[in-house]
Amino acid sequence: MNSKKTLIVSHAPFWHDGSGIPERSYHTIIAALPAAIVGIAFYGTPALGVISLAISSAILWELLLNRAMRQPPTIGNGNAALVGLLLAMVLPASTPWWIVLIGTFLAIVIGMQIFGGIGANPFNPVALAFAILMVSYKNHLDFDAGLVNFTLSFPSSTDPLAALKAFGPSAVEGLNYMDLFLGKQVGALGSTCGLALVLGGLYLILRGFIRWEISVSFLAGVFVTAALFNMADPARFAPPAFHLLTGFTMIGAFFLATETSSSPVNFVPMLIYGALGGVMTVLIRNIGAYVDGVIFAILLINLINPLVDKIRPKAIGKVA
Amino acid sequence: MTSKKQLLFAYGLAIHLLLIGIICYAAFPAKAPDEPIRIMYQTNAGKVLFDHHTHTAASGYGATCFDCHHHPSDDDSALIACGECHQAPAEDGSKPERCLDCHDESDIEDTEIVSRADAFHQQCTECHEQFGKGPQSGSENCSKCHVL
Q: Do B13 and A94 touch (CB under 8 A)?
C-alpha cells in the first residue's frame, strides 16, 4: 500500500465490514479492556504496569522496525497497541519487565513484521510470542510460581488447571462455576474473567469485527471434547463447564482464534478451524504435557488455516 | 492508510503508557513480603507449592506460628526461614552461621541438624497425619505435594 505502484492487491484476508483497520483495532481494544480492568482490580499496580509496558513497547518495536525498514510508520493503525494489550492479558501480573519487552518484540517483530506486517502473519502473533516465552521462561509464566507473593482473595490460591493436571478433578470439584466465570481464579491478568470476555466478544461479533462462527465452534469443540472425556472417566477428567471457564478458553475463543489474517473466511472452514482448536485444547489439557492447551491449539489451527480455506465455493463461470 | 491524527494518537499512547509502565515497575518492585504468602520449591522431584498463608490463617487451617517455627520455642526470633538452620551438613562439620548468633560453637557441637528437605518431609507429614488431612507420608502420597 505504501508503494507507488497501483493495481497491486494486498494479502488476504479480504473480509470487509465497511471500516478501516484503525477502527477495527481500537474497537477490539475497547472490547478487551473490561477483562484487563478486572485484572487490574484483582492484581493492582503490577497488572497495570504489565499492561502499560506491553502496549507501549509493542508500539515502539513496530515504530523502530518501520524506521529500520524505511517505511512510513504503521503504528497509527492501532494494531501494535492491540497486540500489546492482548499479550499483556495472557501474562501473569508478576511478569518481570524484561519478559514483557521480549514478549512484545517476539509478537511484533517475529510474529508480524517479518512476515510483512499486518494481514500477512500466518500465526496469531500473541499466541506465537506466548508460546516462545512459555517454553523459554517456564517459571516466570507459571501462574502458581509467578504469583506466590500476591495475596489473593480467590476461593482457591492455585491455578485451577494446574491443580487439575497435578491432582485430578477431585482437587477442583469444590470450585464454584460462578466464581470462575467472574474471574475469581488464579491465572493470567486479563483472561480469567469469562463474563468480561464474553461481553467483549459479543460486542465484536455484533459490530462485525470478528466472526461468531469461529468463537462458537471453538467453544463447542472444547465443550464436546471435554464432555466425552468426562463421560469416559469422570474420576480422571474434569467436566466440560470447568474447561470452558478456566485458563485461556474464553480469551482464545473471542480474541485469539478470531484474529483475521490467521483465520479462514468461509463458513465451513471457519467451523472446522474453530472446532479443531477446541478439540486440540482439551486433548492437550487432558492427555498432553501442558497445563493449558489453548495457545498451542491456536498455533496449530493457524497452521491448517490455509488448508481449510481451500474449501470454498467455486467461482462463478470458472471452467474446471 | 492512517491519518496524521491516528499517528499522533499512537505516539501519545506509547509515551504515556511507557511512563505509567515504568512508574508501576519502579514504585512497586516485586519483592517478597516479610511473612511469606505462598512458597514454590523447585526440587529435583518436581515443584512443591506450600501455602504459608492458608496454613496460618484462621479462615484456612489455623496453625499457630510455633506449630512449625520451633527453635527457640515460642519466641519471635524463631520466625525465620527453616533453611537458615536446616542446611545440608557442611564439609568441615561446622554448624550453620545462624546458630552462632545465639550459641557458642562448643555448645552445639554434637547436635545433629537435618537438611531442610528432611525437616519438611518430617514436620509437614507428621502434622497432616495428626489432622488426618493434607498430604501424608508414604510413597503413594508424594505426588500430593510434588508436581512434576
A: no
